[in-house]
Amino acid sequence: MTHVTIISTGEELVTGRAVDTNASFLASRLTAHGYEVRRLTCVGDDPESLERELVRSADDSELIVVTGGLGPTADDRTRVAIARATGAELVLDEDSLEHVRRVIESYGHKITESHARRFDGLTALSKAEGQALFPAGAEIYPNHCGTARGFACLIGKAKAVMMPGVPNEMISMFNDSVLPSLLKDSTETILVRRANLFGVPESQVDDRIEDLMANGRNPSVGLKAEGGAVGICLYARASDMEEAERLIAEDLRVIRDRFGDDVFGYDDTTLAAAVSGLLEQHGVRVAIAESCTGGLIGSMLTEVPGISRFFLLDVVAYSNEAKIRELRVPAEEIESFGAASPQVAESMARGVCEMSGAELGISATGIAGPNGGTPEKPVGMVCVGLSLDGRTTSHVLQFRGDRQRIRDRAAKSALNLARLALLKRS
Amino acid sequence: MTHVTIISTGEELVTGRAVDTNASFLASRLTAHGYEVRRLTCVGDDPESLERELVRSADDSELIVVTGGLGPTADDRTRVAIARATGAELVLDEDSLEHVRRVIESYGHKITESHARRFDGLTALSKAEGQALFPAGAEIYPNHCGTARGFACLIGKAKAVMMPGVPNEMISMFNDSVLPSLLKDSTETILVRRANLFGVPESQVDDRIEDLMANGRNPSVGLKAEGGAVGICLYARASDMEEAERLIAEDLRVIRDRFGDDVFGYDDTTLAAAVSGLLEQHGVRVAIAESCTGGLIGSMLTEVPGISRFFLLDVVAYSNEAKIRELRVPAEEIESFGAASPQVAESMARGVCEMSGAELGISATGIAGPNGGTPEKPVGMVCVGLSLDGRTTSHVLQFRGDRQRIRDRAAKSALNLARLALLKRS
Q1: By the CB < 8 Å criterion, does B312 face chain A?
Q2: What ipTM describes this predicted complex?
């Protein structure tokens, strides 16, 4: 297996002003493709630190992946460090310079030659020229999202790949150019799939698939809990794709048998996309009435492209007055049970269906905190209402954490309850 | 200055299944207290990798902070690595063993002596005993949130601090015990503040405060661009807090002079919180009408605790029918100009004010993509409408990127335009 070191550069990382998500992305993708990532390292912007890491990593890794420090500003010094570590000369690439010009002009800006910067051992260059310098003989990777191209060269026997630090530029460069170039020589096929669950805590998922998670098993299985959902990640290694697919399909069947409808989708499917798929399948149109979630349910659902065909209306009725006037919640109901009650949740779901003509109404009302909790209705108590084909039900849920977390989990739980209701619809 | 290396351990980090947020937390806190963090490194669970990092870091750092690998499971091997790196014997601490017992029993579990694990050079021990082993002479840190205590010892001349990897255990141990113990000897005060801007690209901010960003200046100044906003971060070092505050206040004045109302707030203030503050100051109530942003404006604004006093209603009218029926947008207007037009944006903002009685109406309608663009109205074109005290205006904006980015930037721009309008209100 190829041993990999991933190096991220930037003062914002070593001072803790930013979290390094680039390294995890790369580690996850490279691991999925059979590389063994041994070390992730963040260093600041001084070229000496990066040079030391490069030289050290060339000793114990066959592949070094570096992000950051290729841009136009004074603290972008990866080129200098690479030149020092390799002893290679930095050469101006005319085609890349032309690319930098084109991108800057497409933003409606002009290249200002006045912004000169000095490269160690080189004459002063403009910002644009700085981004078109590469070690002699380097493999250059296109950048479809920004100015600075990436490149690869050798440090001793190790292959070193340099990419910009801006996540979307880095991710598309890695997917489109770097990974295909790395995989040219590989003989093993790796297939990665993920089953996504909602409503089952990670520790329970862990317990129920202990057998699948045994060390050395193929596919190897890992868990990824994020925002209330749990992903079961499967990595199959095989000599060809057909065999890899067979191995994965077998495990997915086992997972589906054990977790049933708690599996809401596969790979990058979100809860909202699962709901959207069911709306399409059933020809059902949805309307939403939100209180404590303040528009989150709507904004999650409208993340799905094309949802406009099924999404009629979302009314965020934060005040009691708006609940009464817009959603026709009876004032006595709010008085008797409080705005955060299953009764009001049901009236909200019913009301928004009547307003819009939707077959499915989803509502949420509760106490997002940090204030407003009582012993009977503590912070984190949220009532979800569902109205489907004229039948209305409600669920009282309790969430923990801060305001943001409570709102997020409440919105996702509402979507999940809507999904389960649509699955049961005949 | 004390040079610091932060080491995080765990297979989940080097395989990219988890993002290392512990290191950023520690880097940020240590930087704020005058330490110079030079390197963050993640390694897997094998004790050899960690041992190598410890030995190397003891060479070029005076302080090494390690998180993870102190727990009860088989992949927790930080103790072993430390014992090897220091040559110190691991000794059972009876008080810590008692603590582990108490915590486990408070969870309603029993200590199972059957779960034995083997430490290198030691006899098999129970999980509980494993967590009560420390290098002879170590300083032990209490853990108020879990079983595994932390500790500090010397590796050569460097002080090495070991903490659990579970974020809440680590954070409370760092704040309550580790930092106070480190600061006992420090003489310097550090103050960190941030000015937040919206509507000015990072490169422009960079150009306009080049003088403040000069190397070696005090306060030192860095930029942090995130989600369309740009933060100017100031780090002042001084012998006392009064002097640090004076230095920061001077720079904040300069920034305010240069960027005026584009500065929307300081430190952790969000755009939504800035808007909320102005609503309170002016006694203005807000209502929102959204199309392409699908509830995002409302969900951002309702992230602010206590906003319910000023937030009346948000109507997500995704369909033309809902725009006409709920928001009373004239059907002819949609026919003539299209749903994504300044005319419709104005009618939406006006309509939602009439519906709710709010003094301020904010609306957004546009093309979020990926489909639906035309040469006249490309993907990313968003019209924002504002109605304040009966006067309605609109703005046509163009955003780049994917659907999520376009929606996010459109929602924030709408909030920013509302903020600027409130600032101008007499």
Answers
A1: yes
A2: 0.71
